Amino acid sequence: MFLREIMFQNMKDFVSKYFTQIIRRLDGAVPPLLLTCVLSNAHPEYPV
Prior knowledge:
0% strand, elongated, mainly alpha
């Protein structure tokens, strides 16, 4: 049980680090103008 909890915690950390890395890469690749456009379309109540 204890071992499984440790493994689960490690997997959670790994997944969150992995997703953070992907998001950073996407953020670097996507032009800011397109990102702004997507954000303003997703949240019309927040004018960018």
